[in-house]
């Protein structure tokens, strides 16, 4: 069900939590004990919710408050503290990495959260994640978003633009508990469901269109190296997006039915 190639994460073994913690809406606290199969299960610490449960509010006495006001561009709190937690044992970096994804003003680019901000967001949501794994999780988070943007650019190139303006990301929304129609359909036939979903709103030439991104875990190609599959495509919100999807599907089927002959080396 995935239209894009697998993406092997460059950092060592580490699987991100199911759903981006930086913009997932808070819900009521679920049952306290996760099943043993939960990948982030740490029995000696505060229980971690199973993958199918929403992240909940943390009840610890954190000294890293976060304002409740949400930034409507990315559905993240407007100000995520860089202060360490009271019981934190490792100093996490507070530097933020600049992405390659342009903002609407075209003079700046989106910034990724620092490892300390990422950890504070996890703690605020109730995730007890080992501190030594936070930097790897942030690296994977950033890597996947960069790969997603590259896929968006491929679609935009196929779509074309008369004004030759470069696309930019207007806003985004994390929807980890909302199955996309495509993911839902494939799940009916036994395919795994994505561990996260984003909706990205991309602007270009005075227009704005929505892209759906499903994030899947893929089988490891090497021991200890996580592999992910991204299914990035324009949402079927307008006729142009429908045409692009149909064109891409037809091209993919053509390549399957009529694979191109390998080019012969003239020097052979």
Automatic annotation (TrEMBL):
Q: Which InterPro entries match?
A: Holocyt_c/c1_synthase
A Pfam family recorded for this sequence: Cyto_heme_lyase
What are the Low complexity biased-composition ranges?
77-90
Tell me, in one coarse class, where this protein mainly resides.
mitochondrion
Q: Where in the cell is it found?
A: Mitochondrion inner membrane
Compositionally biased residues, Pro residues? 9-20
Keyword annotations: Heme, Iron, Lyase, Membrane, Metal-binding, Mitochondrion, Mitochondrion inner membrane
Note the PROSITE patterns from the entry.
CYTO_HEME_LYASE_2
Q: What top-level branch of life does the organism fall under?
A: Eukaryota
Entry's EC annotation: 4.4.1.17
Query: Quick one: a GO cellular component term?
Result: mitochondrial inner membrane
Among its keywords, does the record have Cytoplasm? no
Region entry Disordered, spans:
1-90
Q: Name one GO molecular function term.
A: holocytochrome-c synthase activity
Provide the reaction this enzyme catalyses: holo-[cytochrome c] = apo-[cytochrome c] + heme b
Function statement? Lyase that catalyzes the covalent linking of the heme group to the cytochrome C apoprotein to produce the mature functional cytochrome.
Q: Which family does it belong to?
A: Belongs to the cytochrome c-type heme lyase family.
Q: Which PANTHER family does this UniProt record tie to the protein?
A: CYTOCHROME C1 HEME LYASE, HOLOCYTOCHROME-C SYNTHASE
Q: What is this protein called?
A: Holocytochrome c-type synthase
Organism per entry: Circinella minor
